[in-house]
Write a structure and sequence with these properties.
Layout (H helix, E strand, L loop, with lengths): L4 H18 L4 E7 L3 E7 L9 H12 L5 E7 H5 L13 E7 L3 E4 L15 E9 L2 E7 L1
Antiparallel strand pairs: 1-2, 2-7, 3-4, 4-5, 6-7
The structure holds zinc ion.
The site of zinc ion has 6 residues, from helix 1.
Length: 142
């Protein structure tokens, strides 16, 4: 794992969940990572360039500062399907790894993450760009 990968990956889960919480019609699409920054793409009919980014950033930092435990465990696909949309995963995948930020979010994910949100430290949104019809990209760093 690269030095910042777990921090960026875990921050990404918190950011995606916070945006979906603020704007219920929005939906996380995909994320990509560089060494020190990350990008997520979000589907929304709302113009996400107009939302209050200072508030969003503060909400994410508040979750980070709650020192939440990040648990990882494997469940069988049929069990995971009752809770998550696994349509994008190939049928051959029978065991699903869940990343649970205790008391905040549960998401299927196979990438590395930190053990506790406090390890992420400070989170910052760099910019938001419209990248397609109803799709927006958030650049962030930790
Ligand atoms: Zn992840």
């Amino acid at each position: 794992m690269k030095p910042n990968e777990g921090r960026l990956q875990t921050a990404e889960h918190i950011l995606a969940r916070t945006i979906e919480h603020n704007i219920p019609e929005s939906k996380f699409i995909i994320s990509t990572f560089k060494e020190n920054s990350g990008k997520i793409e979000v589907y929304a009919k709302t113009d996400l360039r107009r939302i209050d980014l200072t508030k969003l950033q503060k909400q994410v930092n508040t979750v980070i500062q709650r020192n939440l435990k990040v648990k990882k465990y494997v469940v069988q696909r049929n069990e995971a399907e009752t809770e998550f949309d696994l349509a994008r995963l190939p049928f051959s995948v029978k065991e699903i790894r869940i990343v649970e930020i205790e008391g905040f979010d549960k998401t299927p994910c196979k990438d590395p993450h930190v053990e506790n949100t406090s390890q992420i430290d400070h989170f910052e949104i760099l910019k938001v760009k419209k990248v397609g019809k109803n799709s927006y990209r958030f650049d962030f760093k930790v």
